[in-house]
Batch of 2 targets.
Target 1
Amino acid sequence: MSLNLRMIVVLTAVGLIAGGLLSVVNILTAERIELNRLREIEEAITQVVPGTVTSEIRHEEENLIVYSGKDAAGKELGYAVYASGTGFQDIIKIMFGTDPSVEKLYSLTVLEQKETPGLGAKITDRNAFLEYWENKDVRQPLTLRKPAVASPQDLSATEVNTITGATISSQKVLDTVNLSLERLRRALQEGILEKEDQDAD
Amino acid sequence: MPTKSLSAEYLKGLWDENPVFRQLLGMCPVLAVTNAVINGIAMGLAASFVLIFSSLVVSSIKKLIPNQVRIATYIVVIATFVTMADRFMAAFFPPISKALGPYVPLIVVNCIILGRQEAFSSRNSVGRSLIDALGMSTGFILALLILSSIRELLGAGTFLGYQVLGPWFKPWIIMILPAGAFLTLGILLGIALVIEQKTKGRTV
């Protein structure tokens, strides 16, 4: 066999075998990876809208998915909003829960972030950040308290805390939440969510 | 090349030819993922899986590969195992897969793995390549473990996520930032050289 032919044969064979193996691996894992993703979202919804037993997607637009959380009797407890926005380094994906009238924010959780370890990455830490986001009044946009306070009791109902040394990460999360609240309200006003609600009934 | 005993072939990866401390290969993952012990171990295991299986495959098909396309062939073999490891971790250990982020796919271009194929597996028997890969993997995991233990302990006061140092300890945030990786690695490399000089009487 000439050298050229041998090179082509060897590389093609190696590529085909590798491709075949990978498609088998993909078949074996794809379902589980998707399940992991869904389970993570499900857990986040239960966390941000307390008492949720079942949930469903109610509205979807760019960088924003609205789920509604319901208790066992089917009563709507509130909306869980899955939103993404720019962070200090990369996209931050968050989820927060509001009551059905979008006046109160129950709590916030961070699903994906690549902020600076030890500083901005504290946005995932309950004691350092998320605790300061519980039960906020969101009839007006939330504001950032800076310099940071030491306890959630020191904040007013419309303020959230800054992480010392990571003001930008804190601010970016706040921006995403405020923007998403506005978009959620607009969707409500336009009747998009109600309409889908009737369909669901 | 004089043939070494099989145990020497394994042990050389731990110290004499330790991929991190002696060969200075694979610095990118070493610096990037060692901010927590669990990430270090996961990266070590993933890279070991890829190294061991790539060495097995490359050493068994070495006679079939024309010299001109050997690097391309190695990369395809390595990339296949990396993708397998990546998918496997995403399916069964999602939190770790998230923490390691892009560093798992980047094992494809980890110099330790390509280096062992070129320097060892392509010229040695399957058995010897396996032992070499096992030794190098152990050396790599040990290095990641040492680095990540120091960084996690000083940078967060924890080990494997458990609080080890008491409330009196103020974490040195810099240790879990990139700068801490360079500081720790530099000091460890210095210590490794001093030990080498003292034990072998070599000057560098």
Target 2
Amino acid sequence: MIKTSIHKTQKNRQQGAAIKMVSPYLIHLAVFVLFPVLFSIFLTFHQWNIISPMKYTGLDNYLHLVNDRLFWKAIINTLFFLVIHIPLQLVVALFLAWLLNEKIILRPFFRASFFMPVVISGVVVTTMWQQLYGLETGVLNQLLTAIGLSRVEWLSHPAMAMVSIAIMATWKNVGLYTILFLVGLQAVPQSHYEAARMEGASPWQQFWYITLPAINPTIFMVFVLSTIGGFSLFIEPYIMTDGGPLNATLSAMLYIYRQAFGYYHMGYAATLGLVFALLILLVVAIQKRYVENTENA
Amino acid sequence: MVLIFKFKWFASLKVGMALTMLVLLGSCNNKSHDTDDLTYWTSNNGGEIAFAQQVTALWNKQGGQQKIAFQPIPEGQSSEEILLAAVVAGTTPDIYSNIWQGLVEFYSKSGILVALDTLKGFKELIAERCDATTLAEITSSDGHVYQLPWKINPIMTIYNEAILKELELDSFPASYSDYLKAAKNYSKDTNGDGHVDHWLGNTSMKLAWYQRLFNFYPLYLAASGGMPLIKDGKAVFNNKYGIEVMTFLQSLYQNNYFSRQVESAGQDLFIAGRYGSKWTGPWEIEYLDKFKRPGFQYNFTTMPVPDAHQGPVYTYCDPKGVVIFNTCKNPQKAFDFVRFMMTEKNDLLFLHTTHQLPRRKGLDTMASFKNYFDTHPHMKGFARQSHFVRGSDVSPHMIEVLDIISQEYEACVIYQKKSPAKAIEDAEKAVNILLKTLD
């Protein structure tokens, strides 16, 4: 009986200590995550411009969202960006990782160089690329015309603008994913390749049957991170195109920002944010299910 | 062991809380150490900071009245965002001097501004500075006045004087047809790559609402003789002037007379000689005098108008005003300072220090300003234009209204996806839905 009581007291003390140890994180979670999420959900049922009292509007914001042509265009634009950006990012990052995994001269220099854009501010990168993409004065068009090709309306043609932004975003982020792939590649045992070579496997067969299956978890991680990063597309269209031309680069995040801090429609912006977050969750869940099915198969 | 753990845990928690409080209080406290002082936020451009420094020093030196502590508005993406954050945090200054006229209705409807027409000395100040049109422009929909018109920067056409010689013109074209003719003659491919690389002008390709304040809106005011965009809660720009302006601008892009280059920070194709002209304000003078090439001569003229236009040529004047927030404990004292800041003598000081025009009637004919305008001839042109300017219409939703116009502008003017009549009609419909929904 006494033993049980002592045991209980010790257990309570341990639990108390554990709660105290995690409490800073719990407080942070409550203040900076839980409260904003709950407050945002609360806001979706209101009209509020920050400085005037809130007005209860029921489901008006949701009804408005359903018929908001611009929001759905922004969602399609964001998905279009992902369709270009993710495969490009995966292929380029894997290729660079493969190169950097080989014994090439100045390998540390190249590794640092490819990673450099990741640590440069997004605003700086965007401004720099805006100059490269210039229609009349941009370096890219000057190079194209110098070799006799037609110049490209990188940012001013509705069909081209999002592609240009995806290329730039890939350049900016590829270094991070290259490092992840590099880690994955270095973890593949060399004995597998030696055995394959002895069996007469070609380099392509080695890549396809050994490398790719071995780095599958890394591919999934890069896939998910690129997807989440891609959904938060904001700085690039905000600075380069302001969502134009003809709303071709209006991303969901840019549209939400415009509603919240351009027009001060906080209730509507919260509604857009909530629906958008659910969409991201859905896409990531589908990705996860697909990868799990592939692995099981 | 448990005690030590407890002590460390609580001690670190206390230290953490104390530090947090210190940081929070430090960042929130924008008042000066003397709590009786009134705080005055100015914009954060160098000239206006220098003016605020001088004018507050003069006021404080007089003694016997409440002192003013000035500071530039804290850095942020835009002054609107900073003000909004200050309102939410309850840290607004007593006086703010750089508020865009189109935003005042938004703030006044939220009840955070002092109605200045209830203060002693208001009538005298307004009578000294404003005509009836300006007074009507700054009067809120509830009949009160929440802003004092302080400064303007009228939008005009700046042109490279070399093009007059090149196009054999005596003066820069004033009508649409002359402008289009000049634009056609000036467009050229100088490096032989098959692409035009010299244009008569451009407008920003960006969609941001304020970009239309430098092209569509001043052109609309010029064409219509200063008509509003919104009246009595309805869009009133679907008229022959609105359509004429869109048609004119569309022709410029359709014929490749205007460039579709997206200019980035640091680029200036006017200085580079690639654009023959542009629509801009008097801030361009100081900038050009600093960065222009030797021998680069420029001049200003009014906005182009339809061929059949008669009468004065109006433009948009980018008006900024002074407001007093209702967190101010002594609005009358704050107003007295603002009156002092806007005396003729201090307006002259403002002009000298910032090279921006005070919003004051008869600016170009006042004896005390003569010397300044004689030594700054380009500014004199802007002062003459100040007789024929308009600010913003009274609506809490001006930003959205201009955003809607901007969307239609892009579709019609830049990409020719809509006819001018359809673009104006669609903008009118969208603005009316907006005003009906939100008002």
